[in-house]
TrEMBL record:
<dbReference type="Pfam" id="PF01638">
    <property type="entry name" value="HxlR"/>
</dbReference>
<keyword id="KW-0805">Transcription regulation</keyword>
<dbReference type="InterPro" id="IPR002577">
    <property type="entry name" value="HTH_HxlR"/>
</dbReference>
<feature type="domain" description="HTH hxlR-type">
    <location>
        <begin position="15"/>
        <end position="95"/>
    </location>
</feature>
<keyword id="KW-0238">DNA-binding</keyword>
<keyword id="KW-0804">Transcription</keyword>
<dbReference type="InterPro" id="IPR011991">
    <property type="entry name" value="ArsR-like_HTH"/>
</dbReference>
<dbReference type="InterPro" id="IPR036390">
    <property type="entry name" value="WH_DNA-bd_sf"/>
</dbReference>
<protein>
    <submittedName>
        <fullName>Helix-turn-helix domain-containing protein</fullName>
    </submittedName>
</protein>
<dbReference type="InterPro" id="IPR036388">
    <property type="entry name" value="WH-like_DNA-bd_sf"/>
</dbReference>
Amino acid sequence: MTAKEAPAISQLFDLLESRYALRVLWALRDEHAQTFRLLQDSVGGITPNTLNTRIKELREAGLIDHGPSGYLVTDSGKDLLRRLNDVQPFAVKWAAGRAKKK
């Protein structure tokens, strides 16, 4: 990783580490627009204030946007979600391996 790339990945990880940020993105991964209320239900357990904050941050980052039907991931958000999609099979394999050790 170059010196120029390090701050970029740090910025992305800082955003994604924010409470519920990944869950908001994950809830929108099917590319169907969701209203605020539906998104809140999809994420589960998130307060309206926290959801508003995450939406604002994710919109400023260019990962989601609001259209006539509700919130959607942008092309950049879709690209990120495609890359994160590989994490799911890894997580299943990882969790199974950890369960065997217990």
